[in-house]
Amino acid sequence: MKRLLLSATIAAVTAVTTVACGSTAEQTATPPGSTASSDDAAALAPGPTDIPDGMGSGAADGVFPRTVGHFGGSTEIPAEPKKIVVIATGQLDAALTLGVVPTGVAYGSGAELVPDYISFSFPQYADQMTQFVDVGNRQEVDIEAIAAIEPDLILANETGSGDIYSTLATIAPTVLTEGTGVNWKQDFVLLADALGRTEQARGVIDTFTSDAAALGESFAGSGAPTVSFVRFTADRARVFGIASFAGFIAWDAGLARPESQQFAKTSQDFSEEEIQLANADWVFVSSQDAGADSSAASYTTNPLWTGMSAATENHIVRVDHDPWYLNAGPTAATIVLDGLKNALQS
């Protein structure tokens, strides 16, 4: 199923047609809210929308023991886990969205253990979040710290932790999601399955998808604007494609992308000479480092940037890099969708 979805994604991206930036563009991938069936829409989506065939447990919510097929193999979870370690990007977001507070948490490079958007979104867990055990950087976790927790379940992703899966699995039952932002729906449901909350997660996704479709429907007759996604780090500038976290959200909302961002990978770098690749009717940009010597400072003061149509029309929106570009979880997705709504419907 995963391979079929990837093939469909590439075919859909290849078939995309646009007009020049500053006017409307139309994707052949059928957005939600159209007359196409839900199965057709899912097949054309940039990423998977549910657990791949052969994975998951098939067990009802709350039923344990359960054996979960995942991207690292198959894992038996004997009882509802109480002490959980989350390693991968977005998994803290996903667990808290389901009402589950982990014990051990890893952090992303250049990020806080608890991103600001998490603290803001889950004030009911403020006291518990101060008690999180820091298990290190997601790219190089502290195995001893994880073992000391004596967890009932470890959640990670295959992309970042596949090489240490066997080590993690000797500590506690370990479930690997796939990783990367375009897989956020699939990974959320698979994580939820390990927690015994599969249908709860599907309900969250159904609500999100319906809300996204409503945004696209609000442009019926006038045409959806093109949207661009840009991220600056200390020394890099990137545009994000359709097959990215923000790109999938835009697709769910039926929003068009500039031709320069209709590629079937997560992102690509662009130079200052290529700044026009970032342009669209609306540009949503984050800067992880905005210091005087950063790429953000250099690019955004360049006349090619200040001369973009989005800049001259005051359609460049500064966004928080944590939910938009670093944490592919359901609450982050809602924040991105709300950001699109606030800008495009203002």
The rounded distance between the terminal residues' Cα atoms is: 39 Å
Report Rg. 20 Å
- Describe the largest sheet: 6 strands, mixed
Shape verdict:
globular
Estimate the mean pLDDT confidence: 89
Number of strands: 13
Strand order in the sheet with the most strands? 6-5-4-3-7-8
Structural class: alpha/beta
Helical percentage: 25-40%
Query: Number of helical runs?
Result: 16
Element-by-element helix/strand order: HHEEEHEHHEEHEHHEHHEEHEEHHHEHH
Low-confidence spans: pLDDT under 50, at least 5 residues? 1-37
Strand content: 15-25%
Spell out the key features of this protein.
globular; alpha/beta; 346 residues; single chain; 16% strand; 37% helix; five-stranded mixed beta sheet; 13 strands; six-stranded mixed beta sheet
Outline:
By secondary structure, the protein is α/β, with parallel strands linked by helices.
Describe this structure as you would to a colleague.
The chain is an alpha/beta fold. The chain is 37% helix and 16% strand. The chain has 16 helices and 13 strands. The strands form three sheets. Strands 6-5-4-3-7-8 form a six-stranded mixed β-sheet. Strand 1 and strand 2 (73-77) form a beta hairpin. The chain is globular and about 60 Å long. The two termini are 39 Å apart.
